[in-house]
Every structure is written in C-alpha cells, then in structure tokens.
Amino acid sequence: METRTLHINMGPQHPATHGVLRIELEVDGETVIGARPVIGYLHTGIEKTMESKLYYKAIPCTDRMDYLAPMMNNLGFCLAVEKLMGIEVPEKVKWARVMLAELTRIKSHLVWLGTHAIDLGAMSMIVYAFREREMIIDIYEACGGQRMMTTYFRIGGLANELPPDLDKLVRKFLGVMPERLTDYEKLLTHNPIFVQRTKGVAVISAENAINWSLSGPMLRGSGVKRDIRKDEPYSGYENFDFEIALGKNGDAYDRYLLRLEEIRQSLRIIQQALDGMPEGPYRAHVPGVVLPPKEDILHKMESLIFHFKIITEGFKTPRGSVYQAVESPKGELGFYIASDGTNKPNRVRVRPPSFINLAALPALVEGGLVADVICAIGTVDIVLGEVDR
Amino acid sequence: MGLEEKIPDSVILTTLDKMVGWARKRSMWPFGFGLACCAIEMMATFMAKYDMARYGMEVFRPSPRQADLMIVAGRVSMKMVPVIKTLYEQMPNPKWVIAMGACASSGGVFNNYAVLQGVDRILPVDMYVPGCPPRPEQLIDAILKLHAKVEKETLKQKHEDWGRGV
Amino acid sequence: MEETVRHWMQDRFAESIVREDNFRGQQSFYIHPNALLEICEALMEDPDLDFRYLADITSCDWLGHEKVMGDRFEIVYNLYSLSRKYRFFLKVMLPAEKPEIASLTPLWNGANWLEREVWDMMGIRFTGHPDLTKILTPDDLKGHPLRKDFPLTYEVPQFTWNKDNPPEVIR
Asked: DSSP readout, A336-370?
C-alpha cells in the first residue's frame, strides 16, 4: 500500500509553544520524521537598538530579552561593561548580585515547571508555581520598584541601596520554599503519567550535546559537568559553597529532576549570601564612569557635574572587545561588546542560550511521537524573547 | 448571533439590549495572544493572587474561533503582522481588542525597523493599557472598564462598529 | 594555558596568523580566512588543547574604522575547551566587496543556526552551508540590518505640534 507523509504546521499561535514559535513537522502516521523550527516572529532588533544608545541607557534593553530572568541579563551586561572599563565593584555589590541572581534562577525554574507541567496535562501545577513566583516578585518590587523589569544592576553597582525589609522578605521566602518543593515532588516525581511522558523522551547524548553547542540544563542532563559559576567564576561566586546537579540519561525526566535540584542549590546560596552580607557602599567610586550617589549630588559640585556629563554624554571606553558569560537558567548567556573608543558600543552581541538549544530540536524529536514534540519544547525551556531578540 | 441583522432599524429594544449586554459582559472568553513579557503578567493576572475568573473570564480559549476578547500582550514584530490579521479575522463577531502594554499600544521601548509602532495600525483597538509590563491591577482595571462599555452597547450595533470603540 | 596555545599556534600555523591580541585577559588570534577550517579541525583533535565546544559565532561591522582594524567585516569564533577550562577567540577580517568564508557545519552542528543568523543580519556568505536562508528578519525585508549603512528606521513620535503631519521616519 502506498502511503505519503503529512506536513503539519504547528503555527506561531499555539497554546503549548511558549510564545510565537512555528515548527514545520513532517509526520508519517504518528511518528515524526522531520521537524524544522521557524523563528523570527518576535524579532525586535535589540542589538541594533543598543548600538545607538549610551552604555548606561542600553541596560533596560537587556531586561526585555529573556523576560523570565531579567536580572540575569542585566548582570551579564553590567559585568561585561565593567570588564571593558576595568572597574572593581565593592564586596556588598557582589553578594547582593549573587543573591538576586539566584532568586532569578528560582523564579525562572518555577515558571518552567508550571508551564511544562500544564503542557503535559498536570494543570494545577502552574497555579502553585505562580504563587511562589509572587513571593519573589515582592522582593523584586521592594528592591527595584517594578515587578519584572527592575533594571536593578547598573554599571559599577546597584541602582539604589538595598531595601531595609529585604532580610525579612527573603527569610520568609526561604522558610516557606523547601516544603513547597517537597509538595511539588509529591505531585509529579513518581506520578506514573508524568514519568511515562518524560522518561526516554527527547534524549540527547553527551557527545551530541557538545557538538550542538548546548549549554545549561540541556548539557548537564547528559552528564557533562559544565557550570560557568564553577568553571569561570564571576561576581564572587568562588566564595559560595554549592553543588552542580548532573543527570545521567539525557532525557526529559532527568532534566526535570536536575532543575529541581538546581532550585535547592540556589536556596543554599541565597541562605549563605543573606547570612554573610557585608556592609559597605552600593556603588563603586569611579568618577566620570559610575553615577555618584544621589545624596552627594545635592551637596557637592563635582558630583553634580559628573552626574550631568554621564547622563548626557556617557563615558569614553578603550578600544577592544570583551566577552562575559553568566550562567543563566537557560544556559550560557554571553555578552560580547566590541568598542571603538567612543561612548556608544559598536556591537553588542548576546549569545542566546535558547536560540542555540532550540537549534537542536530536530535531533531531539526525530523518531518520536507527535506528543513528544510538546514535551521536547518544554524541556528545552525556550524563551522566545531571547531566541529572536 | 444573527438576530440583530433581522431586526429593522425602526425597532428599539430595551430590555433585550440590557440582557444581552449583561450576558456578554459576564462571560467574555479571552483569547490570550501572549507574545512577549506582557504575556507573563497576563498569566499572573489569571492565577491565584489576582484572579480573573471571578469576573467570568475563566476559560482561556486557545482557538480564535471560540473567543471574544483578544488581548494583544507584547511587542508585535513585522513578521507577525499577517498572522495577527488572520487571527483577528477568524474571530467571530462580537469581538473586542485590548492592547496590553506599551509595545502593543504604540511601539513602546523599541522604535526601529522590526517592531510595529502600535497594534492599532492594523486592528481596531478598544482599550489601551500602558505599562511595561502593566501591573495585574492595571489589566483588571482595563477589563472592568471594557465590561462597563460592553454592557452599554446595544444589540443592533452595526458590524462595522464592532471593536471600534464607538 | 595561554602560553600553550600561543606555542601551539606558532608552531603549526605561523604563516596564517596575522596578529595576536590579549585584551583584559582574553586571548585572540587574527588569522587568514583560508586557514580557518584547517585550524579548527586541528584544535578539535589535539588532545592537549581539546577545543571541542564552539560557544559562539559573531560578526562586527567596522565601517569607518578600516584603517585601524584592517578590513570592514570581522567574524569572531568563540572556542572553549571543556577539559582545560580555557576560552579563546579566533578572528577573521573580511573585505567589504564580497565577504565569504568557509562554513564550520561539517565540524560542529551548532554552527548551522549561528551562521544563518550572521548571514541574515550582516550579509556574510558561508560557503558549504546546507541551508543559508533568512532566519530572524521577515521575508520582505531587504538588506542586512546590523550593517552600519542600514538605518535604524526610527519613527519620530507625534506630539501636539506635528500630530497632523504624517509620521516622519528617519531612514
């Protein structure tokens, strides 16, 4: 009997594609033979926009790329510019950045958990995950004033002083979170439906993962021990004591367990950061580059002049290019800044982990069933704002 | 409903208008067209802390053929414009559009070659919600104002007026 | 590790290196375009260096700075060694008239989408790439957006004094 394959379009508007992603599937019955993702439906030209702005004014553009972990993008950009200019930040800034970056990681993993579970059918998970996310957003709001895009990390330090009730809010979160995590495990980890839908699905071996340049939980799920916080530490991560979660088989179930373990390790880091937070200024003192604190502007003349000059003209950078990578919840988020000696960057390149992880989607789904495509998209954990920039 | 086409213009209905307006407002089904960051805030509005189900908008229809209210949440890229147009035309009457966020209202932070400067260049918008992203309370306020407007619309509103904010 | 890489490159590929650079602790080599595939393959297979991870492929447009940088387009290959935990950069300068270079897809699968993005945004052609098409920009956009001669297409916002005029687009 002669049969033909069928071309199905999982269109840009789909409840389970986490945004506007289009996949052209070629199926033979229920088996997927070919999958070709088509992206670009959210392309915003952020890199070109950042070329026309001063370094200071380009920070809010970075918030909007990976919108589930906005502080991580800020951190990467600020670290890259500080490396370019050779600025050393005070200890308090490093510890505050680590604490808020780990809170961002937990926030992103919670949204991942909720949406992944609802794609596979466990519909109550998303309500629980968003309840915890609201607690983290309260902390964001106390620090930066905004629920999501705080732009709290600036070049040379933080936007303003840490709020006085930060300690109380974070301790409340730390007290509540571990037992909620055990609740989530009870819901999903040994649930036969969840296990059947994720075990053995979207498998990738360690060799293939390195060849496809994957990073983050996709790479660690296959057993490769790579974490930028341990390999190329930044912002004081060498002072903290935590473990790297690793998977064995490289399937979706291992990545689920791995991300839950990452949440637990992040809770450990936040506890250490909160207990040992040093005192000190919240900004480096580099006149001409870093904005002076607001109290000084009202009393000292030089601070007023520097503030005016930095906001209107920016600061001159040396010629050269730097690359700074941070470990975002999705993978290796890198910022490559090429400067031509003026006050605006010549090229800001964002190395998007979701874009590169998504390129490996054909290798994950070919040979599987159509329903496994949904699971594969969920386990890759893409954010379309970062894929398309 | 095709009833309003059959009624001649010289007939004025009062109680039926009120009842239809009340019914439409109480059970508007949203078509969450979440594109970018505002979609996450829209999801947060529909979750346990800021519950939208108490206003009747419980079911989030993924298909445009079953939805009334299109919430354009997020920046509209140039590649997405024909897709949005098709989806809007697939929605049956009566339909309303909320432009959520600064990027959907007017282009927002991004003023360049890749972003459409406001979704009202291609769709008739009823309610604009500013913010980047707007707080859930702002979105709830916009939806309640839209409900108040819908309640006052008559049954015989002409088809060209749907979603135009007349 | 920096010394090891420098000795290795100068032993085996001394004639392909244009210059060497080290800015803020990041080592980079400017090489000739023809030697790219050879050098990358040797880097991958050498057990001392073991650069098996291609982190990123990037491009820059140095319009107006050709005298300082050499040529107009620069492609940067970001290579990382997992076992030695070391990162370094290979950079290639390409002329403005016909920027072409060999594709790295035979060696790394991850280079596929990265090179497609460089083609789309900067217009650099990769010979030997299986599917060099647009990936991010819409199909009707002509030109390559990240080049310096492509304008930002900034639209002047409408205030009260120009609200009756049609929107002015700065091209």
From this structure: EEEE-SSSS-SEEEEE-HHHHHHHTHHHHHTTSBH
Instruction: Determine the residue of chain B that is closest to C150 in CA distance.
Output: B113
Band of residue A105 on the pLDDT scale cut at 50, 70, 90: very high
Neighbours of B151 (CB within 10 A): 16
Q: Is B81 helix (H, G, I), strand (E, B) or coil?
A: helix
Walk me through the domains of chain C, giving residue ranges and CATH numbers: 2-136 (3.30.460.80)
Neighbours of chain B (3+ CB pairs under 8 A): A, C
Q: Looking at residue B166, what is its pLDDT? A: 36
Q: Which residues pair with B32 in a beta bridge?
A: B71
Query: Which candidate from B77, B79, B112 shows the least CB-CB separation from C153?
Result: B112
- Dmax (CA) for chain A in angstroms is 88
Bridge-based pairing state of the strands C125-127 and C53-61: unpaired
ipTM, 2 dp: 0.91
d(CA A328, CA A73): 8
The token pair that represents C146 in the structure block: 């990240």
C24: chain A residues, CB-CB within 8 Å: 83-84, 86, 320, 322
Band of the pLDDT at B8, cuts 50, 70, 90? low
Domains of chain A: 49-388 (1.10.645.10)
